[in-house]
Amino acid sequence: MSGVSNTWTVAKRELTAYFASPVAYVFTCFFLLLSASFTFMLGGFFPRNEASLVSFFLWHPWLYMFLVPAVGMRLWSEERRTGTFELLMTMPITTGQAVLGKFLAGWLFLGLALLLTFPMIITVASLGNPDGGVVACAYLGSFLMAGSFLAISSMTSSLTRNQVVSFILSVVLCFLLILAGWPPVTNVLTNLYHSTWFLRLLVTALVVLVSVVTFGLLRVAGVPLRGLSAWAWSGLTAAVAVLALFWDRIGALSGSGFRGGVEAIAASLIDFAVKVSVMGHFDALQRGVIDLRDLVYFASVMLFALFTTGVVLKARRA
């Protein structure tokens, strides 16, 4: 069979499994109920007094943060727990085809649940004349965001056979992607990056990060640190980290030049966090703006997460 045929076979198998159990129906009802409740009760739909679905899409990142991992946590954890993972891997398909097929099945299921919210469009249309282009773009953005969160859930599901652990990891990662670009958080970080304590913590974190990365590179290079050398490395890292926590009191580092460099790093990190957050890209589509950069962002998140899933599964398959 061709690659497309193999992928579709896996997708059909997974879709059948979804609708063969009550989980799919419970999820769909729960999603529709929460979407409507948040739109009319918390989203300020009526006070806005405008024919738009802003109140509806406003809550989608937060809904998806919990609901999508609930769908994705079983993609690979369930296969490994029941022992069908080995059976699936013996089929005449590649790991990539299996990953893509299961992902597409979950994404199609989420898309179907999203399509069932069409009464919201009818409701708004009965109250005014919403911009059809803006509504279509917002739905596209919501669908892409759901796919991104599902790909992340697929990745975490491949790491563990425990569905609860997979769910928690997925929620945390999705939450970080939302939080990094959430205006209240970015405003706080922007005001903080001139703070001495914030800069101290940043320098300390960078020291620890460099130490961990170096430790990993040495291990990959075949020079693992064990026993006494590992303890010595840990002690050295801890000592430097403590010094870094008070770098502004060290004569050679207390000058304005070093502080300015640290502030520049902090500003760059905040800007990077905003760019990798899902919020800015979803907001643009929600406003009806189709930018290639936003589409590339969502595609990149999905491809990276699915590629990582494939790497993990290949390692287990070997």
What key attributes describe this structure?
318 residues, mainly alpha, 2 domains, 17 helices
Tell me about this structure.
The chain has helices at 3-19, 23-42, 45-48, 54-57, 60-72, 74-82, 84-89, 95-115, 118-127, 132-159, 163-179, 183-192, 196-220, 227-245, 256-276, 278-286, 292-317. The chain has 318 residues and is mostly helical. The chain folds into two domains: 3-182 and 277-317, no CATH class; 188-276, no CATH class. Helix 1 (3-19) packs across helix 8 (95-115), helix 6 (74-82) runs parallel beside helix 10 (132-159) and helix 8 (95-115) crosses helix 17 (292-317). The protein is flat. The mean pLDDT is 81.
Please mark out the parts with pLDDT under 50 across 5 or more consecutive residues, or reply none.
Answer: none
Q: Strand count, sense and closure of the main sheet?
A: none
Mean pLDDT: 81
The domain tally reads 2
Overall body shape: flat
Along the chain, the helix and strand elements come as: HHHHHHHHHHHHHHHHH
Number of strands: 0
Structural class: mainly alpha
**How many DSSP H or I helices?**
17
**How many angstroms separate the termini?**
23 Å
Q: Kindly provide the radius of gyration, computed on alpha-carbon positions and rounded to a whole number of angstroms.
A: 23 Å
- How much strand? under 5%
Which percent bin holds the helix content?
over 70%
